[in-house]
Each structure stands twice: as C-alpha cells, then as structure tokens.
TrEMBL record:
Pfam families: ABC_tran, TOBE_2
Family: Belongs to the ABC transporter superfamily.
Occurrences of domain ABC transporter (ranges): 10-242
Protein known as: ABC transporter ATP-binding protein
Taxonomy of the source species: Bacteria, Pseudomonadati, Pseudomonadota, Alphaproteobacteria, Hyphomicrobiales
GO molecular function, one term: ATP binding
Keyword annotations of the record: ATP-binding, Cell membrane, Membrane, Nucleotide-binding, Translocase
Statement: the UniProt record of this protein carries the keyword Translocase: yes
Organism domain of life: Bacteria
PROSITE patterns: ABC_TRANSPORTER_1, ABC_TRANSPORTER_2
Keyword Magnesium attached: no
Length: 348
C-alpha cells in the first residue's frame, strides 16, 4: 500500500482501453500528472474521461501493455483499496442509512483507526466542509449540495494521496454549483493534494484546473494551462469546445486579411491563411466617428446587465459574437463598424 498523506505524482503510459463488448474507449494514452496539481479532464460525453479516471483509481485495468505509475511505482494491477485514493462521484455513493458522521468516518473505521482519532478526524473534516451542524443527520435527510459536501469530507478523511472527482457538481443547480466550486477550489489548494477532476463543463475546468486535458474520441486533443487552451487552442475541436470562437474567411496579403465585411490589418497574417479566428472579447463595436475597416449589421442583441451579447452579420456562414459594454441599446439591423484586436487573432 502506498504511503498516506504525501501527494503523489501519477503517470499513465500507453494506456488504452477496449471493453469486452469491443467498445474502444481509449486510444493509447500517455500522461504525467505532477504531485499536488489539479488536472481536469474535459470533453464531450463519451470521449473517455471517466474511463481514464477509473484506470487511475484502480476500478478498471488498461489493455495489455498499459501502465499506471504512482510516484514511479507500477500500480497497474493494484485494486482501488490499495492505492490510497479518495473518490467523489456525481451520484454521491453515500450510505443512506448512516449518519453524516458515520459516512465520513467509515473509511477510517475499516482501516481500524482508534475511535478517539476517528472522532477527531471526522469533526475536523465536517468543519472543513462547513457541515458540522449536520453530523447526526441521515443522508436521506440532506439536500444534494449537502450530500456532496459529505462525500468530499468522506473522501479526504482518510488522507488520500490523490483525490479523484467525477463530475461532482453536475447534479446540482447552477447557484449551488458556483458555491461548491469555490469551496472545492479552496479545499484542493489548502490540502495541496493531487487532484483529478472530470467534467464536461468548460467553465468548471477553467476555474479549477492547474492544467486541462481536453479529450476527444478517446484521445488527448490538447494539454495545457487554462489560458493556453483558451487563447492558443491546438485544433478546431478545442477552439470550438472551449468558449465561443468567431471566424472570418478570406485571403491574406501583405499584412492585411480581406473578407466579405472589409479588411483586418494583421501584420503577422500568414500568407496561406484562408480563415482567421478570434474570441468575442477581441472584437468591439467602433465608437461613432471612429474609422472601422470592418462593417456588419446587428442580427440580434441580448442585454445581459453587465454587457450586451451581439450577433453581428458580416456575410459569413455564422454571425460574429461580440460582447459590448457600451451603455446603450442596439437595434436589429443597425449598421456597426467593428475593430479587432490583432493580438487575439489565430489561424488553425
Ligand atoms: P460521460 O461524460 O458521458 O461520462 P466520458 O467521457 O466519461 O463520458 P466514458 O464513460 O469514459 O466517457 O466512456 C467512453 C466510451 O466507452 C463510451 O463510448 C462509453 O459508452 C464506453 N464505455 C464506458 N464504459 C463501458 C463499459 N463498461 N462497457 C462498454 N463500453 C463502455
């Protein structure tokens, strides 16, 4: 059994997974997770996130030739009980007839930790998750958010070397998700534990991940820090999966990109570019009187309070998405001049 407490580094080498029915869930995957970091697996349903997490947990074995290493030690064939990892699932997986304190102390009791120590550790965990007052409640008397706090407290009570979380917030409503996301963030930082977090929610991934592994059809599409993934997506799939991406089609020559709606000055435009991409925050509506080299017509405008989300028709297949903080309303069909910040331009 691996040591308790100290965060572990985790490596996957050549880990593929084919299920007995022939489903190929994972193509051969190599991945190195540093001790103490939070890595998020992000991708659409069925891309292999959960399968990868289960291989790391010891709930699933990779196909022959695959290896899982904890601090360099081969644990490929060790069952979950011997890996010293904590797990939290979307479905809580708590014991419904036990109290909150009973659930949180469960892992300690089966490890034969003396009663007094179990008690102390349970109170510490309940305090950390801010559920001390629920200690004697039964699980079936709790809300979803409270249950997930119990599940987190239970997972960390045994001082695991890694915490594995599979869509822990998906079943909760939006407000609760925001609060619990904040609490999970501070928890992971204060524990300094190695954490792997599976989600299909890009906002959650960006908020929590030191690094994000974007997955597509059983393969890694890109690994990087949230800002790298957002600002420098490696593929079209990543560009579209994370955030909103605008596109203009045309041709580049001598530092100018020409498209149907006008021109975009871009000194570094590659001569081969036939499509440029940029985020909504890298384009703005020109002020009245300001010269603008791109022209469009407002197709829709949604006032969101702090900003207005504009869809602007520029003669492309899809309208451009623009976030405007101007203190005014926009009319349907209104002609607008547009200015793009060249620092946000990409070619893929
Ligand atoms: P989701 O977000 O929907 O949970 P995911 O990215 O976590 O998706 P996985 O659960 O890893 O995806 O599944 C990857 C692929 O493997 C899917 O096509 C899935 O149907 C398949 N799969 C998962 N478990 C099994 C199994 N036990 N037997 C056969 N196929 C499976």
């Amino acid at each position: 059994m691996t040591d308790a407490g100290k965060p572990v580094s985790i490596a996957l080498e050549n880990c593929a997974k084919t299920f007995v029915d022939g489903t190929r869930a994972l193509e051969p995957l190599d991945l190195a997770i540093h001790a103490g970091e939070t890595v998020v697996f992000l991708g659409p349903s069925g891309c292999g996130k959960t399968t990868t997490l289960r291989i790391i947990a010891g709930l699933e074995e990779p196909d022959a030739g695959g290896k899982v290493l904890f601090d360099g030690v081969d644990v490929t064939h060790l069952p979950i009980e011997q890996r010293n990892v904590g797990m939290v699932f979307q479905s809580y997986a708590l014991f419904p007839n036990m109290t909150v304190a009973g659930n949180v102390g469960y892992g300690l009791r089966i490890r034969k930790v003396p009663d007094a120590q179990v008690k102390a550790r349970v109170s510490e965990m309940l305090a950390m998750m801010q559920i001390t007052r629920l200690a004697d409640r039964r699980i079936d008397q709790l809300s979803g958010g409270q249950r997930q706090r119990v599940a987190l407290a239970r997972a960390i009570a045994v001082r695991p070397r890694a915490l594995l979380l599979d869509e822990p917030l998906t079943a909760l409503d939006a407000k609760l998700r925001d609060t619990l996301r904040l609490d999970i963030d501070s928890l992971l930082r204060s524990l300094g534990i190695t954490a792997i977090y599976v989600t299909h929610d890009q906002a959650e991934a960006m908020a929590l991940g030191d690094r994000i592994v974007v997955m597509e059809h059983g393969r890694v599409a890109q690994i990087g820090k949230p800002r790298e993934i957002y600002q420098r997506p490696a593929t079209r799939f990543v560009a579209d999966f994370i955030g909103t991406m605008n596109r203009l089609t045309g041709t580049a020559r001598e530092g100018i990109f020409r498209c149907k709606a006008g021109i975009v000055p871009w000194a570094e435009a590659p001569a081969t570019a036939t499509e440029i991409l940029f985020r909504p925050e890298d384009i703005r509506v020109a002020e009245s009187g300001e010269a603008a080299s791109l022209q469009g017509k407002v197709a829709s405008a949604f006032f969101l309070g702090d900003r207005t989300r504009l869809f602007v028709d520029v003669g492309e297949e899809r309208p451009l998405v623009i976030e405007s903080t101007a203190r005014r309303d926009f009319q349907h069909g209104e002609a607008v001049g547009l200015a793009i910040d060249p620092r946000g331009l990409l070619v893929l």
